[in-house]
Task: inverse folding
């Protein structure tokens, strides 16, 4: 019994220390954070969505490439990477904020469902992991690598769709990504 | 001589803690904790008398009182749960669920363990049994602390002091008993360190429970109870929106 129980005690001790170090007393003491944020108006939402698409879009990169200037390309890559990482960090912070508000609200609910709460916790951890992976990906391969990869996969998918349509007995596949 | 000094000072501090607690009404807020302190104080006197004048009976008196102290300590843990989570029914429900999970896992491990099962566990030495039970206590305390931190439940100085003092004391016992069972620390050093740790825990308690200091108002306390389903759905929708935002990054 000893090694597992002792390891569990140590693991919980570490987790408790981590939670202790990351808690934000000031934030938790401000009730206005618990109010639902005002919904974004249509223009604001579109502007934000366009910003994300623009940061990760390959259009700007292709434009800079056409200039043929290596220093400009390096500068572009550095700046775009900084922007992309900033966006990922903001998104990760947003996720943490959503969950913090959830915890502050659900702790008062007597009909809390422990199973649903656990599931939500795992979804939250999954999203945070996704953000961390995305940040690592951007650092290593640059902000456009995911788009390049998706474009490559899309091309491959369309190729398979075209190939399948010429094989007798096989229904034509959807040739565009949803 | 040093041991006797710690012993006497410890008893004096516990008496001070009891008198102070009862005079400012903390005894009513934490009945299990003050009963525990009263019990340990009486036990200390009893052990001191036995050690001094009936040394042959000391071991028996020590282990019987030690196991009763362990039982009393378990009530202190229950009190931490009851007092700390009373204003937070949602967090309390989650705590019950997690504690049930922890106790269930420990019980299952004890019953179906590879080292002979539950009966074999009962047949082990007093030190090993106490170490295992203290480990269960520590797991319960840490589970509660994690939950308090996760749901931002304020401890307050009084409850925080009780948790800190008792948690550290139990943790020290676990490590000492574990080291002792592996023959790392000599028995005389072990008993000396345990007395010092308990003395330090009492010092923490005297500091934390000198005056009434209920958990600080968080500002969110007066909020009406919310329907969990609505809260859950709102969070879920927000997380899904973020996921969609993340997905837009990989658009070809």
Result:
């Amino acid at each position: 019994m000893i090694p597992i129980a002792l390891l569990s005690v140590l693991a919980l001790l570490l987790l408790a220390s981590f939670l202790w170090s990351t808690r934000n007393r000031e934030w938790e003491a401000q009730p206005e954070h618990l109010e639902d944020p005002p919904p974004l108006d249509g223009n604001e939402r579109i502007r934000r969505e366009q910003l994300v698409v623009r940061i990760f879009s390959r259009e700007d990169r292709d434009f800079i490439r056409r200039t043929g200037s290596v220093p400009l390309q390096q500068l572009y890559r550095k700046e775009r990477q900084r922007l992309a990482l900033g966006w990922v960090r903001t998104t990760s912070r947003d996720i943490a904020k959503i969950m913090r508000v959830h915890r502050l609200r659900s702790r008062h609910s007597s009909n809390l469902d422990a199973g649903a709460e656990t599931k939500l916790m795992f979804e939250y951890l999954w999203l945070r992991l996704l953000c961390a992976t995305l940040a690592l990906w951007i650092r290593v391969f640059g902000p456009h690598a995911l788009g390049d990869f998706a474009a490559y996969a899309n091309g491959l998918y369309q190729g398979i769709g075209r190939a399948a349509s010429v094989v007798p007995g096989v229904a034509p596949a959807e040739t565009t990504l949803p | 001589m040093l041991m006797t000094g710690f012993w006497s000072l410890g008893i004096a501090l516990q008496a001070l803690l009891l008198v102070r607690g009862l005079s400012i009404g903390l005894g009513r807020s934490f009945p299990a904790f003050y009963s525990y302190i009263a019990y340990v104080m009486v036990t200390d006197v009893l052990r001191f008398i036995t050690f001094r004048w009936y040394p042959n009976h000391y071991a028996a008196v020590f282990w019987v009182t030690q196991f009763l102290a362990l039982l009393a300590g378990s009530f202190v843990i229950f009190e931490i749960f009851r007092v700390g989570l009373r204003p937070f029914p949602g967090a309390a429900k989650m705590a019950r669920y997690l504690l049930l999970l922890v106790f269930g896992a420990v019980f299952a491990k004890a019953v179906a363990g590879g080292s002979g099962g539950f009966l074999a566990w009962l047949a082990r030495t007093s030190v090993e049994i106490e170490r295992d039970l203290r480990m269960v206590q520590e797991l319960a305390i840490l589970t509660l602390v994690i939950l308090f931190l996760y749901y931002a439940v304020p401890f307050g100085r009084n409850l925080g002091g009780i948790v800190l003092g008792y948690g550290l004391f139990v943790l020290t016992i676990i490590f000492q008993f574990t080291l002792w069972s592996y023959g790392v620390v000599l028995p005389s050093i072990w008993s000396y360190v345990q007395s010092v740790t308990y003395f330090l825990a009492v010092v923490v308690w005297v500091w934390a429970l000198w005056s009434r200091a209920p958990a600080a108002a968080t500002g969110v306390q007066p909020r009406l109870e919310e329907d969990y389903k609505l809260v859950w759905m709102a969070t879920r929708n927000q997380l899904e929106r973020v996921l969609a935002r993340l997905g837009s990054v990989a658009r070809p």
Remarks:
- Chain A has two domains: 38-138, 144-178.
